[in-house]
Amino acid sequence: MFKTYLRLLNFAKPLSRYTVPYFIFAALHAVFNTFNYAMIIPILTTMFDTGGEKESLEVVYEYTTTFPAIEFSEQGFTNILCYLYGLAFGPIAFDKVRFLLLLGVVTVCMNLFSNLFRYASAMTVERLRVNTIQRMRDEMYSRVLELNVGFFSEQRKGDIMSKITQDVMVVQYCITNTLQVAFRDPFLIIGYLTLMIGISWELSLFAILFLPLVGLLIGNIVKRLRHPAKRSQERMADMVAMLDESLSGMKIVKGYNATKFIVDKFKGINAHFSSLVISMAKRQQLASPMSEFLGITAVAIILVFGGMLEANGLIKGAGFIAFIAAFSQITRPLRSFIDQFANINQGVAAGERIFTIIDAESEVKDKEDAIEFDGLKDSIELRNVHFSYDGEREVINDVNITIKRGQTIALVGPSGGGKSTLSELIPRFYDVTAGDILFDGKSIKDYTQESLRQRMSIVSQETVLFNDSIEGNILMGRPTATHDEVVEASKIANAHGFIMDAPEGYDTNIGDRGTKLSGGQRQRLSIARAVLKNPEILILDEATSALDTESEKLVQDALTRLLEGRTSIVIAHRLSTIYNADCIYVIDQGRVAEQGTHQELLDKGGIYAHLIEMQSFT
Question: What is the spatial distance between Cα 366 and Cα 549, in angstroms, rounded to a whole number?
Answer without folding.
Answer: 43
